Structures are given as structure tokens and as C-alpha cells.
């Protein structure tokens, strides 16, 4: 394994169009005094969950490999992905929203290997959409 001359900060960023009313991870409509959590639907028709909720459901995270071309060129930055998580907690698909092209593929490949606890809505596991930010930073002095 090559010397680790960098580190990754993986964060789930807040999506501005996501709202919950009395939401509870893993809960059901019966768990909420006002009924089911209010949430916006994505253009794909899936429930959107906040990056914070997704982070709490994350059980396996694979770190991306820092691309050699990007490392040599001292390219750093954030790659933002739109991820679809299936009802079993697998990342079904991920697509680039923004980020440097030399970093994007490494972020996509890593995130597709992540595993989540299933999101439960109204007593049933359901597929969801969220946003994930993978931040590539090289350590200084290397």
C-alpha cells in the first residue's frame, strides 16, 4: 500500500429542499403523533432523506482511493453525489452533482460500496434518495 499522503473527510451535506416534521429514523406513521413524517419526494419519486439521517444509517463506509493524477496535480475538493439507497440499504446508484472530474470517479466507486441500515417508513423498508459529499484533501508537508 502506498504511503498515505492524504486524508478524506466524508460528510453528508444538507440538501435545502428536505424537510421532516417529527421525523424519526426507523419509525413508522404510528410512531408520530401527527402521522407519517412529512417529506418531499424527489424527481425520481423516492422519498428524500436528509444527509444527516443517511449518516446515522451508514454501517459500512469504503474510503475512496485518491487518484494519482489528482494527487500529483495537487487537486483537492468536494465531490457531491446524488445517491439512491435501496430498501435493503445498498447504494443502488450514485450520480455526480458537482466536483472535479479527476476526483469524481473515485468518489462514485467508493460510495457504491457503502452499506446502510434500511430506512423504515410506515413500517416498511423503503428506497430513498440523499446527497453525499466526499471531500478530498492532501496532507501538507508531503
Structural commentary:
The chain has 142 residues and is of the alpha+beta class. Helix content is 16%, strand content 33%. It has helices spanning 51-57, 68-72, 101-111, and strands at residues 6-11, 47-48, 58-60, 77-85, 91-98, 115-116, 119-121, 124-126, 128-138. Strands 1, 2, 4, 5 and 9 form a five-stranded mixed beta sheet that branches. The longest helix has 11 residues, at 101-111. It is elongated and about 50 Å long. Residues 1-40 have low confidence and may be disordered.
CATH topology: TolA/TonB C-terminal domain
Content of β-strand: 25-35%
Total domain modules: 1
Content-based structural category: alpha+beta
Query: How large is the count of helical segments?
Result: 3
The main β sheet shows up as: 5 strands, mixed
Regarding CATH, which class?
Alpha Beta
Shape: elongated
* Spans of at least 5 consecutive residues with low confidence: 1-40
Average pLDDT, all residues: 77
Please name the fourth-level CATH homologous superfamily: TonB
Order of helices and strands: EEHEHEEHEEEE
Q: Give the radius of gyration.
A: 17 Å
Number of strands: 9
Head-to-tail CA distance between termini: 16 Å
SSE inventory with pairings:
Blueprint: E1 6-11, E2 47-48, H1 51-57, E3 58-60, H2 68-72, E4 77-85, E5 91-98, H3 101-111, E6 115-116, E7 119-121, E8 124-126, E9 128-138
Parallel strand pairs: 2-9
Antiparallel strand pairs: 1-9, 3-6, 4-5, 4-9, 7-8
Sum this structure up briefly.
The chain has 142 residues and is of the alpha+beta class. It is built from 3 helices and 9 strands; from the N terminus they run ββαβαββαββββ.
Amino acid at each position: 500500500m502506498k504511503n498515505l499522503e492524504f486524508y478524506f473527510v466524508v460528510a453528508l451535506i444538507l440538501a435545502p429542499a428536505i424537510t421532516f416534521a417529527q421525523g424519526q429514523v426507523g419509525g413508522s406513521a404510528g410512531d408520530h403523533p401527527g402521522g407519517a413524517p412529512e417529506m418531499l419526494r424527489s424527481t425520481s419519486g423516492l422519498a428524500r432523506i436528509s444527509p444527516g439521517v443517511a449518516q446515522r444509517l451508514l454501517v459500512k463506509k469504503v474510503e475512496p482511493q485518491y487518484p494519482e493524477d489528482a494527487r500529483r496535480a495537487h487537486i483537492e475538493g468536494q465531490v457531491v453525489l446524488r445517491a439512491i439507497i435501496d430498501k435493503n440499504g445498498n447504494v443502488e446508484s450514485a450520480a455526480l452533482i458537482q466536483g472535479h472530474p479527476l476526483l469524481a470517479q473515485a468518489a462514485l466507486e467508493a460510495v457504491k460500496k457503502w452499506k446502510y441500515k434500511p430506512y423504515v417508513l410506515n413500517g416498511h423498508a423503503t428506497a430513498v434518495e440523499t446527497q453525499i459529499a466526499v471531500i478530498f484533501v492532501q496532507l501538507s508537508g508531503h
